């Protein structure tokens, strides 16, 4: 909600009306992750972001794209904090990819009449193409069928074995092939099957389970219950949002049985064999989780400088694997748990879970075509709330994008750069006597009111506010804050109606230039802060303002320096070339298509 900040703006307005001066904001010292109130003021030297690697048993859907866009926005925001493009590239890594082993893949390939490798090649290419088309700026796309990954998994297995954490034993219990996981009796329920008879299913996912009895390698997971509890209690930001951390701690209050980490190769042949024992295939989840190490060069020396900075972005359905099994396996191999685990919820369609049987699975590629790449990125990240499931339907997308991107942001840019209002096509001069820093000492030329000072205060605070929201994995709140300031800026322009002022009037001209200067400064801040979410739209906006590529970082993002008595590098600068509408209204686009079809 934006109400607290609006109320703060009103309080500031009342303070200004009493003659108090507006303090100069410090340059934004953007925080890194850490306990609230004790965050680092400088970014870490490196940052490594990951998405889950996605199963290739089916084509990608919008939930997969949402995971990738969350990680992409976090990584892009982190890069903007680096002092230059080269430094940003060297200091960040971002991986995604596909999980291509396991019984589920083996069965899907058999159903399709394809060799598993061919199915993996086809579907992995679909994920790669989707992420490329959506502007996902990953530095690595890993496939678990790659030789580098096989070597990393075998080395990780050897590390666990050398520490005495693997033993061979008889496993008997329920196995869910759809979820690729073993389940205790307490996690299995009965539901009517096709014939009406009760069938065993996973209580969490609803997928069928079968009774399994075989000799496997088993990991001594039970040894790690207390170490995992200490890790989570000593690192309150390790799992975000907080409700998911509490869920994991609740799980750890229960018994933590040892974990089967292999399957008989006669049953599961599509995977990585256990080193020294070809009769066993390494459990798909152990295999898949090691991808995060493979990408940063494990077991070579390079990975040691990257691993402590790792941030995983995952869906809530795989929380147990990433927050219990994976940290325990890492500790068992002599490595530290991941730095952060960011957890998000799922997407429904008109209130229903996406499923093939309902025919409501949303094709993300079609959405990119229909709403534009930047438009659909903005919708998912603006509407997606990590704590709970979010709903998709077309009318909701159109209403949001038309309101916030086409009308509010695009309309503001068009107003302030139009030839009629800004005939010189420049960043106009700011007049300090029209908009003095200390309103209580204002002279007869002063034109700014309390709401205008509230706007300056809100936009000056915006970069740090946005950074805090990114650190808390609340990208939707960052976009909400930007949208609120866009509305305030439109109100500022509407109040002062610069189209009613004349450049020829010695009384009007200084204030007309000041109104446009303030509005353009606000737009520059908005464009800079939107880069992680809508990179092409933000580039178009900043280019129209004449902001060069080297002036788009967050480290030196100073808002309205002339207001605080400092020079402004943009004042008097020629605006960039006209590039048309920043974002076209979607409803009008559809109307035009219908009209063209009829004619």
TrEMBL record:
> Gene3D superfamilies this protein is in?
2.170.220.10, HUPs, Isoleucyl-tRNA Synthetase, Domain 1
**What domain of life does the UniProt record list for this protein's source?**
Eukaryota
- Quote the InterPro entries the UniProt record gives: Anticodon_Met, Met-tRNA_synth, Met-tRNA_synth_2, Methionyl/Leucyl_tRNA_Synth, MetRS_core, Rossmann-like_a/b/a_fold, tRNAsynth_Ia_anticodon-bd
The Methionyl/Leucyl tRNA synthetase domain is annotated at 48-416
Q: Which residues form a coiled coil?
A: none
Q: Which residues are in the Methionyl-tRNA synthetase anticodon-binding domain?
A: 447-548
Q: Which organism is it from?
A: Pipistrellus nathusii
Per the UniProt entry, the Enzyme Commission number(s) are 6.1.1.10
Q: What is this protein called?
A: Methionine--tRNA ligase, mitochondrial
């Amino acid at each position: 909600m934006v109400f607290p900040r609006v109320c703060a703006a009103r309080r500031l307005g009342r303070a200004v009306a009493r003659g108090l001066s507006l303090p100069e904001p410090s340059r934004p010292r953007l925080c890194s992750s850490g306990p609230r109130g004790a965050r680092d003021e400088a970014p870490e030297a490196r940052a490594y972001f990951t998405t889950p690697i996605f199963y290739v048993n089916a084509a990608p859907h919008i939930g997969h794209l949402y995971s990738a866009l969350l990680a992409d926005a976090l990584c892009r925001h982190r890069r903007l904090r680096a002092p230059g493009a080269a430094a940003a590239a060297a200091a960040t890594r971002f991986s995604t990819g596909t999980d291509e082993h396991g019984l589920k893949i083996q069965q899907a390939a058999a159903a399709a009449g394809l060799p598993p490798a061919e199915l993996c090649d086809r579907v992995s290419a679909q994920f790669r193409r989707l992420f490329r088309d959506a502007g996902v700026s990953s530095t690595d796309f890993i496939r678990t069928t790659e030789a580098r990954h096989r070597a990393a998994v075998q080395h990780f297995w050897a590390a666990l074995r050398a520490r005495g954490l693997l033993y061979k034993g008889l496993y008997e219990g329920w196995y869910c092939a759809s979820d690729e996981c073993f389940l205790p009796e307490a996690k299995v329920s009965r539901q009517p099957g096709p014939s009406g008879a009760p069938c065993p299913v996973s209580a969490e996912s609803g997928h069928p389970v079968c009774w399994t009895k075989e000799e496997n390698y088993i990991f001594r997971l039970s040894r790690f219950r207390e170490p995992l509890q200490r890790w989570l209690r000593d690192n309150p930001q390790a799992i975000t949002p907080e409700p998911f951390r509490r869920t994991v701690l609740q799980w750890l209050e229960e018994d933590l049985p040892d974990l089967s980490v292999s399957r008989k190769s006669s049953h599961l042949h599509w995977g990585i064999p256990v080193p020294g024992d070809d009769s066993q295939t390494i459990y798909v989840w152990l295999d898949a989780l090691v991808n995060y190490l493979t990408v940063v060069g494990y077991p070579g020396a390079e990975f040691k400088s990257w691993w402590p900075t790792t941030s995983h972005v995952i869906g809530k359905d795989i929380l147990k694997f990433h927050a219990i099994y994976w940290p325990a396996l890492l500790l068992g191999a002599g490595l530290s748990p991941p730095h952060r685990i960011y957890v998000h919820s799922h997407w429904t369609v008109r209130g229903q879970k996406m499923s093939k049987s309902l025919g409501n699975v949303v094709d993300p590629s079609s959405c990119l075509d229909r709403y534009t790449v930047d438009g659909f990125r903005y919708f998912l990240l603006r509407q997606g709330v990590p704590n709970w499931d979010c709903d998709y339907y077309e009318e909701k997308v159109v209403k949001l994008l038309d309101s916030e991107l086409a009308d509010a942001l695009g309309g503001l840019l068009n107003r302030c750069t139009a030839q009629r209002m800004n005939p010189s096509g420049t960043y106009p001069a700011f007049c300090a006597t029209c908009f003095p820093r200390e309103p209580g000492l204002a002279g007869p030329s002063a034109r700014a009111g309390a709401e205008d000072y509230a706007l300056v205060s809100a936009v000056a605070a915006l970069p740090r506010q946005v950074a805090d929201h990114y650190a808390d994995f609340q990208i939707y709140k960052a976009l909400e804050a930007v949208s609120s300031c866009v509305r305030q800026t439109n109100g500022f322009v509407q109040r002062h109606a610069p189209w009613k002022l004349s450049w020829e009037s010695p009384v009007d001209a200084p204030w007309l230039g000041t109104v446009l200067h303030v509005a353009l400064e606000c737009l520059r801040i908005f464009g800079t802060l939107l880069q992680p979410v809508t990179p092409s739209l933000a580039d178009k906006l900043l280019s129209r303002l004449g902001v060069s590529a080297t002036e788009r970082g967050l480290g030196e993002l100073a808002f309205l320096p002339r207001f605080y008595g400092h020079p402004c590098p943009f004042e008097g600068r020629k605006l960039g070339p006209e590039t048309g509408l920043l974002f076209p209204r979607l409803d009008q686009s559809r109307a035009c298509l219908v009209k063209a079809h009829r004619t």
